[in-house]
Amino acid sequence: MITEHQRFIPFVYKLIAGLVVFAGMFIVSMAFGAADVTVKDVWLALTSHAVGDKISIIRLPREIAGIFVGAALAVSGAIMQGMTRNPLADPGLLGLTAGANAALAFTIAFIPSANYFGITIACFIGAAVGASIVFGIGAVKKGGFSPLRIVLAGAAVSAFLYAISEGIGIYFKISKDVSMWTAGGLIGTSWGQLQVIAPFITIGILISLFLSRQLTILSLSEEVAVGLGQKTTQIKTVLFIIIILLAGASVALVGNMAFIGLMIPHIVRAIVGTDYRFIVPMSAIIGAVFMLFADTLGRTINSPYETPVAAIVAMMGLPFFLFIIRKGGNAFS
After folding, report:
1. Domain 4-326 is in which class?
2. I want to staple 89 with a disulfide (CB 3.0 to 4.6 A). Which of 12, 27, 80, 326 is the partner?
3. Rounded to an integer, what is the distance from CA 195 to the centroid of its chain?
4. What is the C-alpha separation between 220 and 138, in angstroms, rounded?
5. Mean pLDDT in the chain?
6. Over 80: is that where the pLDDT of 33 sits?
7. Spans of all domains in the chain
8. CA angle, 81 as apex, 75 and 87 as ends, to 5°?
9. Is the pLDDT at 332 greater than 60, yes or no?
């Protein structure tokens, strides 16, 4: 619940606080790992080439990737929850990431010469197909877009698409290559990959900010949106494309990463309320903070070995998911 005191705190103060936490988490994520470095080393890595190989070449690109992926998954989850009015909506639960993974496996098997841009496009297509199948199944029956039915359809379709991905990996003996993508980690992220992925995520988030007012109205009621003169079909189409861009780009960069898109929007609504003009930017910031935290935890809890980020996110996300179900989706509203 949002207290009366919280309601009177201007959003700009909350935004500044979020940015301060983000900056602090970024410094922590750069400083801690298998090889701990000082804050001075982090500063030199960001402002010069004095600490080249140790930080700026290896750790900096993966943390920037974590920022983009966390922001992309959180914003896409917020858009999905607002657009479908489904508190359980999440790219990892509704077939997007599974579809992107299946498309990635197809691409590696049948177009082995595909470059990173080609793989990214394949992930976009796969995300669109996966989500379309889930929503298609949900729309078969009247009233099919209930939260429970959509989640069940998402689970079934995701399991099917993951099985296809695994089957392709085994049959074509590319399981190792597919697993490198689907393990859900930031290891080995390069500047070249970021140059391909970052523009898609940036464009998607900027457009979602531009449409945040329409999304707020859409989240209230379809009838209200139509009554206020919104072109709901066009807005939903654009928002759906944004979700595909954000989820597909994230999978192309780090593989499977469920629950971030579910958790972060709920937490953000407890901070800023239900207006998506505030939810979208704050989700991007908190999502980036969460991903940096998960990656730092993965690099430090069993150092010098690395714990998969996807496992850490899942351990935090599953109890959260069950808690949201138990509260009927209104635990943080």
Report:
1. mainly alpha
2. 80
3. 18
4. 20
5. 84
6. no
7. 4-326
8. 125
9. no
Model confidence over 254-295: pLDDT tens digits?
877 778 999 999 999 999 999 999 999 999 999 999 999 999
The angle that helices 39-47 and 59-84 make with each other, rounded to 10 degrees, is 90
Contacts of 161 (CB under 8 A, 6+ apart): 95, 98, 99, 101, 102, 130
**Of 209, 205, 202, which is closest to residue 277 (Cα–Cα)?**
209
Q: What is the mean pLDDT of residues 122-142?
A: 84
| Assigned token pair, 329 | 């989706």
CB 94 within 8 A of CB 116: no
Q: Which two tokens stand for residue 180?
A: 């490198």
C-alpha separations of 56 from 25, 288, 291, 295 in Å: 17, 19, 19, 16
Those residues whose C-beta lies under 8 Å from the C-beta of residue 285, and which sit 6 or more positions away, are: 15, 18, 19, 21, 22, 71
158 C-beta neighbours (distance < 10 Å), count:
25
Q: Looking at per-residue confidence, does 23 or 255 come out higher?
A: 23
Greater pLDDT, 144 or 152: 152
Residues with Cβ within 8 Å of residue 293, at least 6 apart in sequence: 25, 29
How many residues appear in the chain?
A: 333
Other CB atoms within a 10 A radius of the CB of residue 295 amount to: 28
